[in-house]
Amino acid sequence: xxxxxxxxxxxxxxxxxxxxxxxxxxxxxxxxxxxxxxxxxxxxxxxxxxxxxxxxxxxxxxxxxxxxxxxxxxxxxxxxxxxxxxxxxxxxxxxxxxxxxxxxxxxxxxxxxxxxxxxxxxxxxxxxxxxxxxxxxxxxxxxxxxxxxxxxxxxxxxxxxxxxxxxxxxxxxxxxxxxxxxxxxxxxxxxxxxxxxxxxxxxxxxxxxxxxxxxxxxxxxxxxxxxxxxxxxxxxxxxxxxxxxxxxxxxxxxxxxxxxxxxxxxxxxxxxxxxxxxxxxxxxxxxxxxxxxxxxxx
Length: 298
Prior knowledge:
Layout: H1 2-23, H2 26-39, E1 45-49, H3 55-62, E2 67-72, H4 77-86, E3 93-97, E4 109-114, H5 126-136, E5 138-145, E6 148-156, H6 159-169, H7 178-182, E7 188-191, E8 203-209, E9 217-224, E10 229-243, E11 246-249, E12 261-272, E13 277-285, E14 290-297
Parallel strand pairs: 1-2, 1-4, 2-3, 4-5
Antiparallel strand pairs: 6-8, 6-10, 7-12, 9-13, 10-11, 10-12, 13-14
């Protein structure tokens, strides 16, 4: 019994820490607050997918929403109900427990709000949630927050990270740990990137208009080395259009610390001189869970 209690406490602490990091991120919250006040009109029906603490649902009511359907599959929804009650909006916010793709609503929405933007834009399944909502939960002319997601890419110089990988490629205390290295190369990892590590001008990899984007997307760009360098990875981050003229990004140096950036470590570093070109191709599918990459010299 004691072990089960400790486990539940640990889950609750992790849940608190995850949502706390988002709520105290003033750039993140203020960007969505401004977007909601610029988008929601008096009397609107709002659909909030992945409501979390319910903060954005409460803001939508303050902006004039007649009704907010706040959808959440995690236990944080119990906290969200308490927050709605504390702010006196419990009669205008209806919390629905489950995945948005598996629920029905009694009416269609005028506005969609979803904060399911991942570190690399699409890795939290936002394309699936939005595409399904467009077809079943929203009016044809519904307004979306965010309305557009752009995945940016750049070449990275990360000598320390690469040195750590190379240690795993050779015997460590006579033991072979190379399978651990295989987990890291050519896969997406998260990090807090310094602008110093960026050795090419960022370029657009994928530009997705969420009013029409499919559930799987792909794109490519050519990155040009700014200087002579050894490139160890490709870095990615997002730019989100949350309302007309209002953009939110996690580009280094990151103004929104509740996000990190994506890092794709290369199997073999590329020795480049200034002006060398590298083509990067990215394909995203399976609710953002599957990413395929191609990185090659042009």
